[in-house]
Design brief:
26% of the residues lie in helices and 27% in strands. The mean pLDDT is 91. By secondary structure, the chain is an alpha/beta fold. A 7-stranded parallel sheet has the order 7-11-6-1-4-5-12, with helices on both faces. A 5-stranded parallel sheet has the order 14-13-15-16-17. Strands 8-9-10 form a 3-stranded antiparallel sheet, with no helix packed on it.
Length: 305
């Protein structure tokens, strides 16, 4: 199998998500080539063929132009699969490309099992494996779902491409989202509450520990969906992506959507009654305990220092 990996370039920089695309191709055991509208000054560590269109000429975001460039590369490489990141760029361009190719599209792939693509279902509470029957498949990959054991290495063999016309849209630039009260992305210490806290009154335990550590408290999506914590404190793909020096996950099982939002924290401590919870795979320390007993004791010890 051959996969065409579509990397992203934003504000003059190649995004780190390119490594997740490379990891996905490795997981699939596939040969790969790469496409990016970017700059020769910012190339990925990738030992393969890279089709490069200059962003200065084609625009960082221009779906008509980028789609045509991709169609030209697909015609040349004939990949069985084209992989995007599940991002605003991927959301916009993947369905355009799939429609043009008359190819099936599979969105938000989180795993590969026996060659089948695994995607979330029922609000990410279940997973299902899918196997499209079209000759070519367009996929988007959930952020954080695929990672490399070691940083990639190598230099790409660059083939410059261009053309595609002017397109129907004019890109006006990027606009940062308005900060809403709590900006967890700037917190050095975050203590997060998961479904395991049991009831809304126990959010106070998490908030107290965060205060003792001079940090902020956050929450997983189930806690926010239940209305126990406001959305501005949600960590994960539908909340904030954080990289604190210390992240304490309290009663959080470790759904991929939550892991994607915090797995790059410098040091992770997980408190869970289940020693086999997925959160343990990314935690530096896993405390197997009832958080309703452990957290108050930990808070008391910290306050006594």
């Amino acid at each position: 199998m051959k996969i065409l990996l579509v990397a992203e370039y934003r504000d003059g920089k190649l995004l780190g998500s390119v490594n997740e695309l490379i990891a996905f191709a490795a997981k699939m055991g596939a040969d790969s080539a790469m496409f990016v509208v970017g700059s020769e000054a910012a190339l990925p560590a990738y030992a393969g063929k890279l089709y490069l269109a200059e962003a200065s000429a084609c625009g960082e975001f221009n779906p008509d132009v980028h789609k045509q460039l991709l169609l030209d590369v697909v015609a040349k490489e004939q990949p069985e699969m084209i992989a995007f990141c599940h991002s605003s760029y991927g959301w916009d361009l993947a369905p355009r490309l799939a429609f043009a190719l008359k190819a099936a599209q599979v969105s938000e792939v989180v795993e590969v099992e026996d060659g089948a693509l695994v995607v979330p279902a029922c609000n990410a509470k279940l997973r299902r494996a899918v196997a499209p029957k079209t000759k070519q498949i367009v996929v988007t990959l959930q952020a954080g779902a695929f990672g490399l054991a070691e940083a990639p290495s190598g230099s790409p063999t660059v083939e410059k491409i261009g053309g595609g016309g002017g397109g129907r849209l004019e890109f006006g630039g990027y606009e940062a989202a308005e900060a809403g009260g709590v900006d967890l992305t700037k917190a050095e210490i975050i203590v997060s509450a998961g479904r395991g806290i049991g009831k809304p009154e126990n959010v106070a335990l998490i908030a107290a520990l965060a205060k003792a550590l001079k940090g902020e408290y956050g929450a997983s999506r189930p806690v926010v969906d239940s209305g126990w914590v406001e959305h501005k404190r949600q960590v994960g793909t539908t909340g904030q992506t954080v990289t604190p020096k210390l992240y304490l996950a309290c009663g959080i099982s470790g759904a991929i959507q939550h892991l994607a939002g915090m797995k790059k924290s410098e040091f992770i401590i997980a408190i869970n009654t289940d020693k086999d919870a997925p959160i343990g795979d990314v935690a530096d320390v896993l405390v197997v305990a009832d958080l309703k007993q452990f957290v108050p004791l930990l808070t008391e010890k910290i306050m006594a220092l």
